[in-house]
Sequence to fold (282 residues):
Amino acid sequence: MTINHFDKIVLLAEIDNLSLSPEVLDTWWNNSAAGKQGAAARFKKHGQLGDNKSRRLGGKNSYLKRKDNQKDIYSPKSIIEPAQDERLAEFIGILIGDGGVTKYQVAIASNTIDDREYIVYIISLIRQLFGIDPSISVRKNMNCTVTVISSVNLVKYLKKQGVPVGDKLRQNLDIPAWILRDRKLAIACLRGIFDTDGGVYLETHKIKGKQYSYPRLAFVSMSPNLRASIHQVLTDLEFSPKIRNNRSVNLEKRLDIRKYFGLVGTSNPKHMSRWDRFGGVG
Fold:
């Protein structure tokens, strides 16, 4: 069934759609299997037809004839190209944190259990921004859900916005300059990065037999450029960030963490729940 029909059914039935582990498939998801069946039937009837060279030529000619047909499988999916606003900045932050971009796809990995509500938020954000429905792949043995958008046009658009295609670290992953120049956009991007690749935890020390625990908020990244930019944004927002072990940027004062959730906020409910357990924002 279509994703729209599925959403309406689970809404009417008051069912959590993620509990059903739905998988949204591309429009032409069955082409490969159907093609193999057709090839097998043709081979049985006519035997081997053509060699590799003739098949490549036939495929090329087919593509040239059909590539400009907007309803054909060879035609790239059209997308909405949103303005450089806070929603786009947050989405780019999500990609910086736990996303990956290849020549043909955009993928975001999430924890299937801890990020259940956040996955719904990401899907909604993609639909709002680009007007397309992502597909969902659940890797049960890894407790991982991957939100995938197969769109050459989206990849091209994101590349223009400063999102690296391919290995992020090798391309010196960083927050795009157009985001850093605007305070509101920088805050939104910071939220996306933290919601995917950050966390709140308790740091525990034992002194003279007594145990002391202190809340910490951390942005974790292996990219020195990204750590430096996060540190600068937090400093500009009048926090007191610390870079720890060349691995993370931390807020280590309770007042700073409380201010962070008030100013930057979070779209991932798990972070607020965890902070509440450590003393909360009140």
Q: What stands out?
A: The chain has a mean pLDDT of 85. The two ends are 46 Å apart (CA to CA). Residues 31-46 form the longest helix (16 residues).
